[in-house]
Amino acid sequence: SPSRPRDGGTCPCRVSSVLNRDVKQFGKKHMFDTNEETCWNSDQGTCQWVTLDFPRTVKVSQLHIQFQGGFSSRLCTLEGCRAGEELVKISDLYPEDINAMQISFAVEEMVLDKLKITFENSTDFFGRIVVYHLGVLGERL
Fold it and tell me: Which 3 state secondary structure label does DSSP give 6?
């Protein structure tokens, strides 16, 4: 069974923006706190993104993501790389604009130290993205 290679506490994560810079209420940590009530809420603008820097090399097998309907992305671009290398495109994902957890994103197993998810096509007129949960499954190498 796939294990979680990281949690928000140990995996340095960066995001493109936070709504009104209110990190306490809408910060990136909320994607990993397993609390149903909290979320990362981006600010306005096109192409919001999240990057994950894994503390150890990870073989990624699956991506779990839960948006708020109306604030999701019709197209997500995945990029990844090993430490010290340039990001390369891995695949395009086409999530549904729904509230439910979406776990169908099996990615070709890749060995990575860094993963970037770019939300290319927000369903929100202003380009905002709301993510309640982001999970990367795989194994540490």
Answer: coil
Entry field: residues in the chain: 141
- Nearest CA-CA partner of 68 in 42, 105, 104: 42
Topology at the third CATH level for domain 24-140: Jelly Rolls (2.60.120)
Under DSSP, is residue 88 helix (H, G, I), strand (E, B) or coil?
A: strand
Closest Cα to residue 51, out of 98, 104, 121, 119?
119
pLDDT digits (tens, 9 = 90+) for 78-119: 999 999 999 999 989 999 999 999 986 666 778 999 999 999
Domain boundaries, the chain: 24-140
In tens, the pLDDT along 38-82 reads 999 999 998 999 999 999 999 988 889 999 999 999 999 999 999
